[in-house]
Design a protein that fits this description.
There is one protein chain. The chain is mostly helical. It has a domain of 248 residues. The protein is 56% helix and 0% strand. The chain contains 15 helices and no strands. Helix 2 runs antiparallel to helix 6. It is globular. The chain starts with a helix and ends in a 14-residue tail after the last helix. It comes from Fusarium denticulatum.
Length: 355
């Protein structure tokens, strides 16, 4: 998984992560929860999106045996716990979020990458997501083979993908909360864009969604002309990568996370930022580089513009999350980490299902 994410297909995995997080807002129970928790507004949405992205990056880019993976899982479990206990987050919703990642990874490879995933690579995707689901205490009872078990990771991934698509078809319906979710997390990302450019952005995003999720999120259909242009770009990219690009060397690996903490603060800084530069350390590259200038042109903020507001000192995995939850849940997290450390994490997760 690490080689796929950092050397061969960083774009595909980064895009799959973004689209799968967006699709959570198309499930009415999830979008309603975002609204009632106070995170679904222009003031809080940027930090919430970045915090969620960080936790997912930490589990995707670190070994299951590492303290960073285990702390990220423990933090997610704590932040979800009271809503799960109150019945505001359903087990099916968490399983859908887990499955959406597989849906998008497989879709992007099929539609726009220069080669498909091999069976072994699909197996790796399945093994990773099964392990993550177990660590997050997500029941798999909705899946057809939950009793008999799965023969390998590819079998698990295919079954979870199919269940996720069926779940979306059954429960994803347009609601006011869904519409507000899109207005906050799409329309308000670059507030200086004109109404026409915002509609264009929505249509480009809509091109990445199927009819069910596009309708549920209230995003406009792409239209034949724009769809033709976007398909052309994808085709050109695929051909360029396949026939004109060399393999990425290890020293150019795409790192989604800082390997070591900031020596001045002991916290971790983000290496990539979008419209709001949360946890990004100001530097020449983050304020004057090409990526930074594109963000600025689109109306986003740069690290130096409000570094204290955006916590440029970095993030602490043990306390990350909404402001009311910062620093809370230490005992529950310690218990989760202790449980993860006590598991046999080195054996095949499917060995108990094999005869």
């Amino acid at each position: 998984m690490m080689q796929l994410q950092e050397l061969e297909f960083p774009y595909a995995f980064r895009k799959a992560r973004t689209i799968s997080l967006l699709k959570a807002g198309g499930i009415p129970t999830m979008s309603k929860l975002f609204a009632v928790t106070g995170q679904n507004n222009a003031r809080n949405s940027g930090k919430r999106a970045v915090d969620t992205e960080i936790l997912i990056r930490e589990v995707q880019h670190n070994s299951r045996l590492s303290s960073r993976y285990q702390t990220a899982v423990a933090r997610m479990n704590y932040l979800h716990s009271r809503y799960r206990q109150a019945g505001k987050i359903l087990d099916e919703d968490l399983l859908h979020t887990l499955g959406s990642s597989i849906v998008e990874i497989f879709r992007i490879f099929e539609d726009e990458e220069w080669r498909p995933l091999s069976d072994v690579e699909k197996c790796a995707v399945g093994v990773f997501h099964m392990a993550l689901g177990q660590d997050m205490e997500i029941p798999f009872k909705c899946l057809l083979s939950s009793s008999a078990g799965w023969k390998d990771g590819e079998h698990f991934a295919a079954e979870l993908r199919d269940w996720t698509l069926r779940y979306e078809a059954n429960v994803a319906l347009p609601t006011e909360a869904n519409d507000r979710y899109v207005r906050v997390y799409v329309d308000a990302v670059f507030p200086s864009l004109t109404p026409r450019l915002k509609i264009l952005l929505r249509k480009i995003i809509g091109f990445e969604l199927d009819n069910v999720m596009r309708d549920s999120l209230g995003i406009e259909s792409t239209g034949p002309m724009l769809a033709f242009v976007l398909s052309g770009f994808k085709t050109l990219r695929r051909l360029a990568l396949r026939y004109f690009s060399l393999p990425r060397p290890a020293f150019l690996a795409s790192k989604a996370l800082a390997k070591t903490p900031n020596p001045d603060t002991g916290l971790y800084n983000l290496t990539h930022f979008s419209a709001e530069p949360w946890y990004t350390r100001p530097s020449w590259w983050t304020t004057h580089g090409l990526h930074a200038q594109m963000i600025w042109v689109l109306g986003g903020k740069l690290p130096e513009s409000a570094s204290s507001k955006f916590m440029s000192q970095g993030y602490d995995l043990a306390t990350i999350g909404p402001q009311p939850q910062e620093g809370k849940g230490m005992e529950a997290m310690a218990a989760t980490i202790s449980g993860l450390e006590g598991q046999d994490l080195t054996s095949c997760p499917f060995k108990s299902f094999k005869s």
